[in-house]
Request: fold
Amino acid sequence: MRVAEKPDLPAEPVRFDFDDFVRYSENHPDGDFELLDGVIYELAPEGDAHLITRLTINTYLHQVLDLTKYTIGTEGSFPAPGWKEGPKPDNFVSRGALAQTLRRPTSEDLLLVIEITTSPNTSEDDELKRKLATYARVGIPDYWLVDLVSERVVVHRDPRADTDPPRYASVVAYGRNETIVALAVDRFTIATDLLLQMAGKK
Reply:
């Protein structure tokens, strides 16, 4: 009797820490990368609608927030506990003024993370799934997904790290002509129309 050979199993990916990720990024200056669960991923090129939305949010945050209390960032990677995470959110707000801390914010500092997507199907987007699980795992209290295709902003709150995969217990979608109030950033509100002004554009 012929015995079938055991199929080759996919190799377990090498898990990098944040220091490895920083060195890798420095050695590949022409690429754009982030670290999720110890795996380095290359980010897709940024289209006009994504860029303009990201810069609009960054400008608005700088206009309305107290920079003696908060640090505002765009496309900056931050380490998480265990140093296996280094996501690079489109926009974020962390506690503490950068001029006073003079250090890279960590996941424990982050109060609000905003991601922007032009993906036609967010429920099937692997990158968005990895990021959502990462943000829930490290306890980001307020994660907003600006969906320029569906013309909505999905607000994730109440992170649950003890589920598999980690998730947010509260998920609320906002459409046009609404206002979102930040959970952990004092008196910060923003109109969804400002977030969605590039909806439907590339």
The beta strands are 33-36, 39-42, 70-73, 91-95, 110-117, 142-147, 152-160, 167-174, 179-181, 189-191. Helices lie at 18-27, 48-64, 98-101, 126-137, 192-195. The longest strand covers residues 152-160. Confidence is low (pLDDT under 50) at residues 1-7.
